[in-house]
Design a protein that fits this description.
Elements (H helix, E strand, L loop, with lengths): L2 H15 L4 H11 L4 H24 L1
């Protein structure tokens, strides 16, 4: 992944994580990845992995 694409993904994920619910987060992803299935899938997978990591950290405490 090139640096420009990574910055784009990072910005979208940061904005999505500012939202309170998964539904609101998905709306942000949908907004920025409209008509780009590959980007949409990457964003969803990245967001899912963040949620899983947060859940694991919570359970370990």
């Amino acid at each position: 992944m090139d640096q420009i694409r990574w910055k784009k993904i990072e910005g979208i994920i940061d904005e999505a994580l500012d939202k309170d619910t998964p539904k609101e987060q998905k709306k942000i992803i949908d907004k920025y990845s409209d008509k780009n299935k590959q980007l949409h899938q990457e964003l969803l997978l990245f967001l899912e992995s963040i949620h899983e990591a947060q859940e694991e950290n919570f359970l370990q405490k």
